[in-house]
Amino acid sequence: MGADGDLYESLRLELRRGSLTLGVLARLREERYGYTLRQALAADGLEMEESTLYPLLRRLETQGLLVSEWREEEKRRKRFYKLSADGEAMLLRLLDEWRRISRSLEKIIED
Amino acid sequence: MGADGDLYESLRLELRRGSLTLGVLARLREERYGYTLRQALAADGLEMEESTLYPLLRRLETQGLLVSEWREEEKRRKRFYKLSADGEAMLLRLLDEWRRISRSLEKIIED
DNA sequence: CTACATACTGTGTGTCACACACTGTATGGC
DNA sequence: GCCATACAGTGTGTGACACACAGTATGTAG
User: Fold this and answer.
1) What's the CA gap between A18 and A13, in Å, rounded?
2) For A16-20, A73-77, B8-12, B101-105, which range has the lowest pLDDT when averaged over its residues?
3) pLDDT digits (tens, 9 = 90+) for A27-71
4) Which of A30, A109, B55, B106 is the most buried (most CB within 10 A)?
5) B48 vs B26, B31, B38, B56, CA distance in Å?
6) Partner A contacted by B1 (CB < 8 A)
């Protein structure tokens, strides 16, 4: 694929960046642990590496948007994440902004 | 507004990042210079600082997606930018990806 | 003829997030 | 005992955006 493909890849990543956070927040309205969260997002078409997801989860928790808890399930310790109250409010604001951007881009594209 | 507002701002910026590039490329299917490009994007709802736009334009030109040319118009030297052939191809690919992400997010949101 | 607005194009630096490569533990099947 | 896979991370590099700043040219108010 070469240089052109690389350029596309980097622009594509750039385009996806913010959407990952939004997808994670939205999917964590239901409690989930990392592994199944990643699978759920992949099923929706938002694939990401574990090494992208876990730092993101920790960051969001540090920022107070998520709460997490270690629990034992099926003989394994798993860390369950869920949206906090602040997280819900933030999700709503970000969804608004997402829709605004979406509309702007649609307008530009159609011209 | 304080810390919460700052957090929202940074997430919002993150969300907008890739879209700026896409908007610029799409708007440059017609030749424009920096100042009017910025105004056109602002009218569409995609506002950005000059100090964001100009580095972006240079980057895109370095990557071969834009071509630019200095011309005199109304007694001022202006730098006109336009999408290159490579840029058009890239724009199409990125629009595809944008639509894919958009669909993924819609799916997640609706659940 | 000076002062200021505004059209117009840039540069330098800091911050922050993602991807990539890597590490590590536990369980179950063979 | 061995390997796949479920599961959770860490460390580092790269690169983009925002912010603050710099600079030129033109028109216009006083």
Assistant:
1) 10
2) A73-77
3) 999 999 999 999 999 988 888 889 899 999 999 999 999 999 999
4) A109
5) 15, 19, 7, 11
6) no
Q: The domain B19-110 is classified under which CATH number: 1.10.10.10, 3.40.50.300, 3.40.640.10, 3.90.79.10?
A: 1.10.10.10
Q: Where are the domains of chain A?
A: 18-110
Is B1 a residue whose pLDDT tops 80?
no
Query: Hey, is the C-beta of A93 within 8 angstroms of any chain B C-beta?
Result: yes
The dotted CATH code for A18-110 is 1.10.10.10
Vertex B7: Cα angle to A54 and A25 (nearest 5): 45
Q: Searching chain B, which residue's CA lies closest to the CA of residue A30?
A: B111
Q: Assess whether A10 (CB) lies less than 7 A from strand D.
A: yes
**CB of residue A75 closer than 7 A to nucleic acid strand C?**
yes
